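Thought: the user wants the 3D structure for the chain below. I'll pass the sequence to the structure tool as-is, report back what it returns, then summarize two notable features.
Action: structure_tool
Action Input:
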Amino acid sequence: ELPMDIPSTEQLIADHKEFMENTQKRQVEVDRICKAKQVKQSATKESRKIPKSKTPIRGSQHDVRETSPDGYGTLGRKQSTEPEFRSPRVKYLWDKWRNVWMLEWERQRVLYDHLAYLKEKERADNFSWDDWRRRFLKFMNHKKSRLTDLFRKMDKDNNGLIPRDEFIDGIIRTKFDTSRLEMKAVADMFDRNNCGLIDWKEFIAALRPDWQEKAPD
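Observation:
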């Protein structure tokens, strides 16, 4: 079970990176053993070679998203068929080594996803309507987009009301820097009767600075 605080999760990520780096140090040895016992394919079958993926750099935010889980050297290069080995023991080593790498990458993906969730939750727990509306107005002004145009597109029935889920998804689709947890807090402010509908004209009025004193609690 993963910890529910950011510092502990970041420590787990750092520990896991160190573990992966230590595993990478054994790569040359495993490559040497497996390559020596690998059955050479016919020269007519050219296999596409892709560069070795580098070991994740400590502190990098892109080591999981930008590097393939097939980053285990010769063994991980994409091939049209499974490599063949003259020795069953070497085949066993190859399979186990590949499995170790896949488990390592999956573990790191889980840790990063969990960290992202915790940061999103922390931001939502400290949600400030005033801060959110200022950021949203600045974002829309930068895009030079009209708020009324945005919400009229969501208002399919032309009755001034937008379904709650469509309201949340529509703002997220603008690429505004927010999260579903934050958007839930925003929607809760304007879906007072829990009817699942947002009065978008009321929402636009609430975004104006002179409306600040009237903002929902």
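Final Answer: Structure generated. The chain has two domains: 1-38+83-126, 129-207. Confidence is low (pLDDT under 50) at residues 42-80, 211-215.
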